[in-house]
Amino acid sequence: MSGLVIDAERCIGCKRCVRACGSAGIEVRDRLARPTAGCVLCGACVDACPVGAISIVRDEPSGGHDLESYRDIWVVAQPCPDGGVERVSLELVGRARELAAPRGCRVVAVLGEGSGAGGDAALVLVRAGADEVLRCRDDRLAALDTEVHARWLVGLVEERRPETVLMGATAFGRELAPAVAVRLRTGLTADCTVLEIDRATGQLQQTRPAFGGNLMATIVCPGHRPQMATVRPGIFPVPETLDDALSPLEAEALRARVSEVGLAPDVAGRVRVLERESSAAGASIADADVLVVVGRGIGSKKNLPLMRRLAELLGAELGCTRPLVEAGWLEYRHQVGQTGVSVSPRLLVSVGVSGAIQHLAGIGGAQAVIAINEDPDAPIFGASDCCVVGDCIEVVGELVRLLEERG
């Protein structure tokens, strides 16, 4: 078992380890160093000890001797109340298809839903690119109970040994992913914006903003399997294969790739849903086809009506950067970026946005970006297809006038 080991014969009780520890993970009692519950095994005390009395014992990586037995990329799909699946699940299937190609492995979607679920979510996942769908229809899975889903997924992973498991960073996904990872004793990277894979080793390179969004960190999990990551909605495009029309014979062939799996009879949730209420927040900007995003460069809250008018004329939704939400100009549901909503519209018009790294991470999926900013060196221009240098109020005012004249 992993832990801090103290050699009682060497320890001199000097307390240098206590002074070196930043988490109150070690103390000295009766002239002997002893680990506490705060120890995070960082090793600072090991380096500080002048007599070499402290060491760390770590568990062997789970499956570290047999990593080659793990195969395939799994996407845990989240069902919708209407019988479909969340958009982010389809985005992840499409990206998993690209990651699996150089490895020659399969893409498997995992779907748990109630026994009376309508629609054909499993068929949609196959059309998105899944080689197989593992579906469990059981009323215990209908309520999106984290404990029930976690025990079901852990059993499947231990039996079938996928090398990578991906989930959408929805409210449910953010709760479920760590519950699965801790049971499997493996690593988890949250809110990834880039996923790449090493063709030879299958090592997943998981990139996400770190240190408050000031830099991008690439994280790997070399000694444990499965590798796990959550990805925010809107980072990757939905596969174009979903637009293809299907004949009845083709649909039947795709349904043959759906495998039914069970849920152990002793699995039971401890949460009972008494009532459901729909959110009144309105449509998410993550689903917008055209988006106008405004930043501090618009100068004042009194200029928001002009921006709303531009969005109306373009048939767009209105988004904003984090400072505008913090100032109370717009609600959080309008916030675009790493700390808000990741978007992938067909067209994004950026007005008065400087382009901080955490904001750029949230608009990486946009197909075309038009940026308006008076600073010619603004970082947003590096991520734009069309750059307009000028006073954003004057430029937008003229643009609104021209659009209104066109009717």
The helix-and-strand class reads alpha/beta
Q: By CATH's scheme, which homologous superfamily of the largest domain applies?
A: HUPs
Q: Note the run of SSEs as H and E.
A: EHEEHEEHEHEHEHEEEEEHEEHEHEHEEH
Count all strands and give the number. 19
The name of the CATH topology of the largest domain is: Rossmann fold
Question: What is the beta-strand fraction?
Answer: 15-25%
Main sheet characteristics:
7 strands, parallel
Q: Could you give the order of strands across the largest sheet?
A: 9-13-8-5-6-7-14
Question: Overall 3D geometry?
Answer: globular
End-to-end gap: 72 Å
Task: Characterize the structure shown.
Belongs to the ETF alpha-subunit/FixB family. Heterodimer of an alpha and a beta subunit. InterPro entries: 4Fe4S_Fe-S-bd (IPR017896), 4Fe4S_Fe_S_CS (IPR017900), DHS-like_NAD/FAD-binding_dom (IPR029035), ETF_a/b_N (IPR014730), ETF_a/FixB (IPR001308), ETF_alpha_N (IPR033947), ETF_asu_C (IPR014731), Rossmann-like_a/b/a_fold (IPR014729). Residues 2-31, 39-59 form the 4Fe-4S ferredoxin-type domain. It is built from 11 helices and 19 strands. It is α/β, with parallel strands linked by helices and 407 residues long. It has 3 domains: 3-57, Alpha-Beta Plaits (2-Layer Sandwich); 65-260, HUPs (Rossmann fold, 3-Layer(aba) Sandwich), CATH 3.40.50.620; 285-406, TPP-binding domain (Rossmann fold), CATH 3.40.50.1220. Helix 8 runs parallel beside helix 11. The protein is globular and about 90 Å long. The mean pLDDT is 86.
Features:
407 residues; alpha/beta; Alpha-Beta Plaits; Rossmann fold; 11 helices; globular
